[in-house]
Amino acid sequence: MILRDATEADLPAILAIYNDAVVNSTAIWNDTLVNLANRQAWLADRRTKRYPVLVAARDGEVLGYASFGDFRPFDGYRVSVEHSVYVAQAARGKGVGARLVEALFAPARALDKKVMIGAITGGNQVSVRLHERLGFVETGYMPGIGTKFGQRLDLVLMQKEL
User: Fold this and answer.
1) What is the topology classification, in CATH, of domain 2-161?
2) DSSP assignment, residue 86?
3) Domain extent listing, the chain
4) Chain-centroid distance, C-alpha 90
5) CA 138, CA 44: separation in Å to the nearest integer?
6) Which of 26, 43, 76, 100 is paired with 10 by a 20 to 30 Å CA distance?
């Protein structure tokens, strides 16, 4: 498996992974599928801000992707970023997510970021444990602040000092 910067050619695979998470999980709190133009705009926005979009690939197949963006759009949060990581269903449980998240630390430090935040759906113990192994600590728990599939969702906030 290799980790590399995402290219335009990776966007169809990124789109498929993203939309699978929308349809089949509570990892993304959206109900609406996105299209290729949406992912193109997202990638362009990340590049403009010098924020990485990384993919994990094997034999030309994208196994997952990760990125980070602003935690909140106010000047006072300039030292913090919130990351996201999504792995194709067939590649889950094989260390892809951990490698991708770890690979975000150096680019965040290079941009003088001090804190990386992960926002995880309550009850997703696989993701919580992954983040704990990478040095994240739980710093917030927000019960019932979202909904998906007709159920209320809790949010776990975890952060890592960079």
Assistant:
1) Aminopeptidase (3.40.630)
2) E
3) 2-161
4) 18
5) 31
6) 26
* Mean pLDDT per 10-residue section of the chain, whose length is 162 residues: 97 98 96 97 97 96 97 96 96 95 98 98 96 98 97 98 98
pTM: predicted TM-score of the whole model, two decimal places: 0.95
Q: Work out the number of other CB atoms within 10 angstroms of the CB of residue 142.
A: 13
CA separation for the pair 36, 88 (Å, rounded): 17
Element at 56 (helix H, strand E): strand 53-58
Do the strands 115-121 and 80-87 form a parallel or antiparallel pair, or are they unpaired? Answer: parallel
> What is the distance between the alpha carbons of residues 117 and 93, in angstroms, rounded to a whole number?
22
Calpha distance 49→1 (Å, rounded):
27
User: How far apart are the C-alpha atoms of 154 and 143, rounded to whole Å?
Assistant: 4
